[in-house]
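Lecture notes, unit on protein representations.

Consider one protein chain, 103 amino acids long.
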Amino acid sequence: MKTMRIQLEYKCYPVWIYDDEGLVEDTALPPELANDHELDERLRSLQDRFDATYVDTATDFYNKGFASPEDEAAFESDLKVAVAELAKKCPVGYTLESAPSSI
């Protein structure tokens, strides 16, 4: 059985798919959800917001965090909604690992 995991990494798609041996197979929605544009957009928006917490210049790379505690709380709330949607739509043959409780 394959495993889907929400894993936020800078400039990567937030859904990681692992094969039966625990090796990364892809960073994308599984083929069964590839046409779910609403879910894909929700996940891409979260990734864009996560990426925006980083400074990435020719001389610096670091996480500056969210602009405010309210922005971080909104992000975490939206992440929970996306995880719940992904869990509800999880295709047969996949398990969804628990998402991080925070970033």
